[in-house]
Amino acid sequence: MLLQALLCVLAACYELAATLSASSDEQKGDGKDVTPLLLVSFDGFRADYLEKYQFPNLQKFFSDGVLIHHLSNVFTTKTFPNHYSFATGLYAESHGILASRMYDSEAKEFFTVHNSSNPLWWNEATPIWVSVQNWNYKSAAAMWPGTDVEIQNRTPTHFLKYDSKVRFNERLENITKWLTEDNLVKFAALYWEEPDNTGHKYGPENTTMMAKVLKEVDDHVGFLMDHLNQTGLWGKINVIITSDHGMVQCSEDRLIKLDDCVDPKSYILVDTTPVAAIIPLNDSADLYKNLSNCNMHMKAYMKAAIPDRLHYRNNKRIQPIILIADEGWTIVQQGNLPRLGDHGYDNSLLSMHPFLAAQGPAFRKGYRMNTINSVDLYPLMCNLLGIPEVPNNGSFTNVRCMLLKEKCSDLAAVIGIVIGAFIVLTTITLLFRQLKNRERSSSQPFARLELEDDDDEPLLE
């Protein structure tokens, strides 16, 4: 009886969920009236800055929209890997932009942030601006990493070559010009270097300098809202504001010097702190053993043993030995501390997490979530733009509740109904069994008395 009742409830819930899903699909439309999307990244905006500092403009932005308190980003928690993960929905091992410095043994080339224009580094994935153009729309970008590179023989329709001297306002004005003058521009991306630069220079624990730069960032958000309003775009486009990673304080007393542990002639250092990529020149087993015992605040991994959760193993550009420093520790060959603040550490650390906020006609009002994965942003953007996803590591299911058209509250109610029904039916069944047991226990003495009377009769004879 209990099983049958539960099956009936589950069947009803499944039917309701299917109805909601069908209703959601009907609202997707045919793509003719696609609302443009603007993606903005403030580099190095650690999630808990929102709790420690005042952001009146940013608060105004997400108060009537969506706020994701923590974005679980990809490893390594560096600028280039994470910005390309936003654009592709892929982990670093899948899209190929693994770090700020890389070496490709087949091409025999080095990649740095200043030497990144060769398409061979980027062509392992299809960024969203290429997909947008493949769908016969146009795209625009203001200095977003990778947008000045011909990926799969294409750049965004409109883009600015990277120049750190170009002000935020000028970058945004170019974006809004392209959006207003060409209604086929459906996707735009804007990148800004702060508060990353200040975090590196002074460290996130320097509250005086961080308060100053974060006020500037908030002023930029204010300008963004005002400028979108003046150009007639506010309320007519969807806007996502986020960041690529957080920041942690470093110090001279948390320094790991590799050349104090191993012979400098025994290896090539491709990438440094806090994730160091090592190419052994002699016996890799011996080098690995020495590096493993180098410092208790640094873990050494042979490539094949890198933990699965990091999604950082299956790519030819990942070097034979990877070193990962503990939070706040710095790896160098020799020398002094290069910077007071850094990132790139294990992506499970909260200090490495950024935030995400969204505003626009597609988003819920006043909606809050604790966390999503950064790779989930890609399927969300594809859904907003009405374009098909290419294979990726994200999941639209994880972010669908951010959108007005998705009936997420009802889905939660369905789950609640199932749990509630199970509890009620279980309670009723237990009560029913208890009542039956009581009936049996109360009737049994009479049966025994009758039997005893029958047994007594022969004795009386």
UniProtKB/TrEMBL annotation:
Family annotation (Pfam families): Phosphodiest
Localization annotation: Cell membrane
GO cellular component, one term: plasma membrane
Source organism superkingdom: Eukaryota
UniProt topology in membrane: Single-pass type I membrane protein
Signal peptide coordinates: 1-21
Recorded GO MF terms: bis(5'-adenosyl)-triphosphatase activity; metal ion binding
Transmembrane segments: 411-432
Protein name per its UniProtKB record: bis(5'-adenosyl)-triphosphatase
Biological source species: Ameiurus melas (Black bullhead)
